[in-house]
Amino acid sequence: MSYNLASVVENFTGFPRPAVMHELPALLHKNRTLSDEELKGLIETDQFDFDLVALADSVRREYYGTDVYLRGLIEFTNYCRNNCLYCGIRNGNQTLERYRLSEEEILDCCKTGYELGYRTFVLQGGDDPGYGDEKIIKLVAKIRERYEDCAITLSFGEKPAKSYRAFFESGADRYLLRHETANEPHYRQLHPQTMDLKKRQDCLWNLKEIGYEVGSGFLVGSPYQTTQCLIEDLRFLQHLQPDMIGIGPFIAHHATPFHDFANGPLRLTLRMISILRLMFPNILIPATTALGTIDPHGREHGLRCGANVVMPNLSPVAVRKKYELYDNKICTGEEAAECRHCLERRVTNAGYKIVTHIGNAKPLISSRRETGPQS
């Protein structure tokens, strides 16, 4: 290592290095799982944070060294048919100026990203009925034809299995679909009655069956969330075994029913990143823009806690403020090159390095014992 990890962790966590490693982080590192009661103990206190961060960083280095993968984010539409209570682009937000990027504009974003070294493009949007299957199929096929050495990631909500299959056959590689919460009563508190948790989970299983590299994840500190909710999220992910897990703090948006709720805690979010790295040592975990929104160094902290992906924005500056999932989102005024170079500096300052290849999830090292969920 090029720096003293113990000093970095001590400065970040605020705790001196313990004389002896706590038992629970060591058990999670060894077994990749704990009982519900043991997970509750990890989640609800900060006394294990030093060990969690140190072990999570050691595991990510075991699999990925200091590499941090770039994903070029293209927010191509902020129309959405859904009315999720936490989301700024919800259908019920009548104050939002809506937009859809044209195919030409999206391809221009890809061209810019490719020239900046990106080898993964993430097409993210609301669940927009204006983008039918044929438009997506045509778009994905054109990106695939022009950039054969790149991965194409899609992220725009729940679709029928036949649609997912058509996108896959046209050239898409990955699909990101956060489950948001695996607890049924909590899901009902965050979503309108027209939405269904089982449908969301079925979509993720369909994506896996089709052959996508699948990403899921959840909000941390969302309204009405309990420790039990977080444990159920971890259990669902143990069953799903995704290739990527994206989590971020809940951040309130002024035009949603949750506008008065407190933002999710930074420290809890980072703790959950470290827990995820120890439970899923080989997966891809992004240091999200939301982390950087609630703390100026949030993304760097995320990397030190086990994250290994960053997602600079390739969207045209003219539309970035309109893709407002939450208030005060950062990086809405930066040109693509500026965003890329800013993140590279941050990654370097955190002790890691940007790499520009596709960056697939590594295979699990089989020499370490695998265990299933415990309760």
List the helices and strands and how they pair.
Layout: H1 5-13, H2 23-31, H3 36-43, H4 49-64, E1 67-70, E2 72-77, H5 103-115, E3 120-125, H6 133-146, E4 151-155, H7 161-170, E5 174-176, H8 184-190, H9 197-210, E6 213-220, H10 227-240, E7 244-249, H11 266-279, H12 289-294, H13 298-304, E8 309-310, H14 317-320, H15 336-349, E9 353-355
Parallel strand pairs: 1-8, 1-9, 2-3, 3-4, 4-5, 5-6, 6-7
Notes on the structure:
With 375 residues, the chain is an alpha/beta fold. The protein has helices spanning 5-13, 23-31, 36-43, 49-64, 103-115, 133-146, 161-170, 184-190, 197-210, 227-240, 266-279, 289-294, 298-304, 317-320, 336-349, and strands at 67-70, 72-77, 120-125, 151-155, 174-176, 213-220, 244-249, 309-310, 353-355. The chain is globular and about 60 Å long. It starts with a helix and ends in a 20-residue tail after the last strand. Residues 369-375 have low confidence and may be disordered.
